Structures are given as structure tokens and as C-alpha cells.
Amino acid sequence: MEQKADAYRPTIMVTNDDGIDAPGLQDLVRVLVSTGRYEVQVCAPDSEKSVVSHSITWRTAVSVQQVNINGATAFAVSGTPADCTSLGISGSLFPSKPDLVALSLLLLYENVNDFITLSLYPRVYLHIVWYRSVISGINKGRNCGYHIVTSGTVAGAREAFFNGIPALSLSYDWVGGTSKVDDYTLAAEACLPIVNAMFAEIKNKTYPQKCFLNVNLPTNVASHKGYKLTKQGKSIAKMGWNQVTSAAQGGKMLSTMTMETNSLTSSEMDASTMPKEHRLFKREIRRTVADEDDTEYRSLQEGYVCCHFYSLVAKIDLKWAGP
Q1: What is the per-residue pLDDT for 88?
Q2: What is the 3-state secondary structure (H, E, C) of 153-219?
Q3: Residues in contact with 287: Cβ distance below 8 Å, sequence separation at least 6, in sequence order
Q4: Which of 44, 107, 116, 251 has the smallest number of CB atoms closer than 10 Å to its CB?
């Protein structure tokens, strides 16, 4: 039975919005691979795509390049996180290969309806799909409250949910001057109990079907207080607009909802090179509105690993009688 589990490990496809070279993704993949329990695939943006929400590439093709990540099959994609998830789970990029001998042996031990899905049409061969999930992250910066709407990381998991695949979005509460790159490894290790529990429930058919899981890890993840099931709050970064003379003025907005100064690159705009009738405006963070209730934001600040099941079906009070 152990040999069967080794040969047919569950598949995890990893994506993110910080880009395929981001340390959060790299460390997550390394930790997942090191367990030996999962087949790891990566389909992630070739550059940072933070705060793009659930945008998709519609009118043009996306380019795909295979890259080297030890222990995983990995592709860098020119599209958004939602594009990457959609492409990665489509079967076009990571096609399943039939193994009829192994399938026959497998049926001696497992109920075919429990362990595999067989698709006989339109292909002439058996298409085998094992237990699988999508993990999006680990994001640089928390995704709490209303930020889950604009987050590309959350969108990567949401796209999997749209397609009936269990998914997690993972975010680390990075704080400049306090957090270190090595914290991503600790965050990935802290996520392993959640990942393992998810697959156990998938096999037992007890994993929730109408939602996906959004996980936030505290800044001091090495000394977190434990795992806490929380509810979504209403925290949000209030923003405004300033007229600027160059794209670098005011700094670059990071995925952590903080500003980074001195970030001008040669590709950024400058008002002096633009037609006179054009003006530049840039967002800036004015203040952060936090929850006072017992929500994921508050629990995160208290040091918990916060887990929130996110559903797209809102519970709305329909007492309003209309005009």
C-alpha cells in the first residue's frame, strides 16, 4: 500500500501573484517537495502581477516558458494569476499520461470512483486525474478583509474553486524592517498541517465544496499561537490620488500595501516626455481601516495562523422593500 501511495501521490499545482521567482513561491514549493508526499507542479506569472484581482487575458495569447525548480515541473506564464491557474488545471500544460497496467493494479485496492476519474470522451485513451488541489502563494503581505477582492493571490485560488478543484490562498504578513526572507520557509512549514488535512478530507469526501480556504500567517510565524478558524472582516487600505511629475514620485506601492521609495526604472513614465495635454496621477495609501471585531485581521495581529473559508454566495438581508 505504501508503494501505491508513493507512485500515485496527490498533485498540487502552485501559483502566485508575486511572480515565479518570488521567495514565497520558491520556498513553498521546496517545502512541499521535501515531504515526498505530493507531486508538485508550478504555473505562475513570469513577473509580478500583484493587485490584479481576477483579471484574465482574453484578446491575446499568453507565452509560456518551462523553468527549472528542483523537484517540480514548472512554467512561467506571461498572464495573470487567474490565467495561470486556468492553464495549469486545463490539461493542456500538464497532460496526464495513462498507465493501464498501474490502473489495473490500483483497482485491486481502491474503488475506482473514489480514487480516480475516468474520461473516455473525446480522447481514445483513459485520462487519469488523481487527487489534486491548487495552492496560491505564499504572498508577500496579508490578504484580509476587502483586500481579498483585489488580490491576485486569492484570485489564483478562486479560479480553481470556479473549476471545482479544492484550493488554498496563502499570505504572509510581511512587515518591512522586521520580516526576513527566511520567514517564508517557516510560513510554508506552518502550512503543511493545513495541506495534509485538506487532502485527508478530500479523500474522505468531507472537504467543503462551496468555498475555498484563505490562510494568513502572522509576522512572527516562528512563534505563532496556533491555528484559528476566523471570519472575514472589513479591513481595507483607504487610498487617494495625487498628481505627479513622474511614476517614481511618491514611491512604488507594494503588494504589502506599503510604499517603497526610490523605485524609478527606465521603463517608468516621466511627465517631461509626455504630450503637454497629458497628466500623471498616482495612487497613494492614506490610511488603513482595521476591524475591531473578532475577524481574521485581528486574530492575525494577535499571532494566530488565520484560516477563513471564502464563499462567493453572499448572505444578504433582503428586508429592503424597494422604492
Answers
A1: 97
A2: HHHHHHHHHHCCCCEEEEEECCCCCCCCCCHHHHHHHHHHHHHHHHHHHHHCCCCCCCCEEEEEECC
A3: 237, 238
A4: 107
pLDDT at 21: 98
**What does the alpha-carbon distance between residue 58 and residue 32 come to, in Å, rounded to a whole number?**
32
Q: How far apart are CA 239 and CA 252, in angstroms?
A: 14
Sheet with 11-15, strands from edge to edge, namely 64-69, 72-77, 39-45, 11-15, 132-140, 167-172, 212-217, 305-310, 227-229
Q: How far is Cα of residue 15 from the mean position of the Cα atoms in its chain?
A: 6
Amino acid present at 226: G
pLDDT grade, residue 268 (50/70/90)?
Answer: low
Give how far the C-alpha of residue 20 lies from the chain's centroid of Cα atoms, to the nearest Å: 12
For the chain, what is the radius of gyration of the CA atoms? 21
Helix (H, G, I), strand (E, B) or coil at 296: helix
Q: Tell me which residue of 262, 28, 37 sits closest to 138, measured CA to CA.
A: 28
**Out of 17-21, 208-212, 232-236, which region has the weakest mean confidence (pLDDT)?**
232-236
Q: Which residue has the cell 501573484?
A: 17
The per-residue pLDDT for 265 is: 46
pLDDT given at position 6: 45
- Binning pLDDT at 50, 70 and 90, where does residue 255 land? low
Task: Tell me how crowded residue 175 is: count the other CB atoms within 10 A of its CB.
Answer: 15
Among all chains, which residue has been given the C-alpha cell 518551462? 66
Residue 187 and residue 170 in contact, taking contact as beta carbons nearer than 8 Å = yes
Q: Which residues of the chain form beta strands (DSSP E)? A: 11-15, 39-45, 64-69, 72-77, 117-119, 127-129, 132-140, 167-172, 212-217, 227-229, 236-244, 252-253, 259-260, 280-289, 305-310
CA 185, CA 198: separation in Å to the nearest integer? 20
Alpha carbons 44 and 20: distance in angstroms, whole number: 5
Distance separating alpha carbons of residues 284 and 144, to the nearest angstrom: 19
Tell me the one-letter amino acid at 196. N
